[in-house]
Amino acid sequence: MLNRFIASQKGSENLQVNWRLASRLSVITLALLVVAIVALVGARNGIGGATPNTSQSNLQGTDLGGTPAPDFRLMDQFGKPISLSQFKGKPVVLTFLYTHCPDVCPLTAEKLHTVVQNLGSDASRVAVLAVSIDPKGDTTESVLNFSRVHKMLDYWHYLMGTHDELAPVWKAYSIYAQPANTSSGRVNHSTGIYVIDKQGHERVFLGDDFTPGQLTGDLRVLLGE
Fold first, then answer.
1. How far apart are CA 192 and CA 108, in angstroms?
2. DSSP strand pairing (187-189 vs 193-196)
3. CA-CA distance, 102 to 55, in Å (whole number)?
4. Residues 6+ positions from 202 with CB-CB distance below 8 Å
5. Alpha-carbon dihedral of residues 207, 211, 216, 217, nearest 10 degrees?
6. Are strands 157-159 and 177-179 parallel, antiparallel or unpaired?
7. Does the pLDDT at position 23 exceed 80?
8. How many other CB atoms sit within 10 Å of the CB of residue 70?
9. Cα separation of 176 and 170, whole Å?
10. What is the pTM of this model?
């Protein structure tokens, strides 16, 4: 009788041990499952070193897909060599103008000045590049004067060059530029603004009807990335 009682007690203890072991194994299995799910969700959302998302996000304008912006090197209004690639780490506003333009170009310059004002202290964290589309008419004197009139002298790099130096840049950014006639000095040209992110990727394109608020908003988004 005593032996049966002892055997019964041992069986009960073994049952309790087995139940506790099974319980602990269940907890460990559940924990591993949670870790696996978190890792999977994190990978899909770009957490833990995944490639950053360069989609349009909250940007306004035509999505350019985040393709690398073609690099170039030209001289600015102060005779300083400037390349696009030197601004890695800053969002870049890239536009194409000429100083004798009677309509769109002055308006674009005024809008850019408003954007600079809107950004306040963050303006120093953004680069503004204006590439000439008039190699003959855009002299250093005319560029300096145009920049002063529109209060952009110290806020942008107005880039100049010969036709052979500028034409490859126009082509790289699908910009049409052709003198209308030699007497008026007018240039037939396409217009718009490329917004480039801190990694040198083309993010959005804005037409000449853009508002300063739209461009300011885009730059704030890129500054926050």
1. 9
2. unpaired
3. 36
4. 64, 65, 66, 67, 68, 69, 194, 195, 196
5. -90
6. unpaired
7. no
8. 14
9. 7
10. 0.75
